[in-house]
Amino acid sequence: MRKTVLEPITIFRTKVKNEVKVELQEEKQVIIHFVVSNCYGRQMRIWKTTYLVTEDQQKIPMVFWEGISLYPEWTDIDTRGNFYFTLIFTGLPSDCKVFSLIEEIPEPGGFNLKNIPRGKKDVYHIGL
User: Fold this and answer.
1) How far apart are CA 128 and CA 124, in angstroms?
2) Is the residue at 14 inside a domain?
3) CA-to-CA distance for 35 and 83, rounded, in angstroms?
4) Which of 82, 91, 92, 125 has the lowest tally of Cβ within 10 angstroms?
5) What does residue 79 show for φ and ψ, rounded to 5 degrees?
6) b/e burial code for range 5-43 (CB count within 10 A of at least 16 → b)
7) pLDDT tens, residue order, the chain (128 aa)
8) pTM of this prediction?
9) 119 in any annotated domain
């Protein structure tokens, strides 16, 4: 006769809860949509060294960008209207209430947006 070993239900539930919690944390993202006015004829780019920085100085990395070039390439802005682009970062810690968006680059002109209040959905619209 074959023996089947079953984990006690309380251990199983705790194990499943922990696994689900980890997966949810991995799926969190912060999405920032930008609109830049009056930039016709200019060029823009973003560096991979762009982070969200929490109150305790934890750096949250950028994982995706759309509508803007990544250094060393440039995006030519040839529209007379607004220029739009989006940056996506991994999730902020649940206890984070305020964060900054910092582009760490070895030249002037990087993004330096401080004290952005945390929203419930972690989707932000920033006008420059």
Assistant:
1) 13
2) no
3) 6
4) 125
5) -110, 140
6) eeeeeeeeeeeeeeeeeeeeeeeeebebebebeeeeeee
7) 555 555 555 555 555 555 555 454 556 899 999 998 877 788 999 999 999 999 999 999 999 999 999 999 999 988 778 899 999 999 999 999 999 999 999 998 889 999 999 999 999 999 98
8) 0.76
9) yes
Q: How far is CA 41 from CA 37, 71, 79, 81, 86, in A?
A: 12, 18, 8, 11, 20
Residues with Cβ within 8 Å of residue 128, at least 6 apart in sequence: 34, 35, 36, 37
Please count the other Cβ atoms lying within 10 Å of the Cβ belonging to residue 55: 14
Look at residue 22 and give its three-state secondary structure.
helix
Helix (H), strand (E) counts: the chain: 1, 10
Strands 43-46 and 75-76: antiparallel
State which amino acid sits at residue 93: P
How does DSSP assign 109-122, residue by residue?
---EEEEEEPPSS-
What the block records as the tokens of 120 is 């419930």
In a domain? residue 25: no
Residue 30 · residue 122 · CB < 8 Å: yes
Closest CA to 31 of 110, 116, 104: 116
- Is the residue at 41 inside a domain? yes
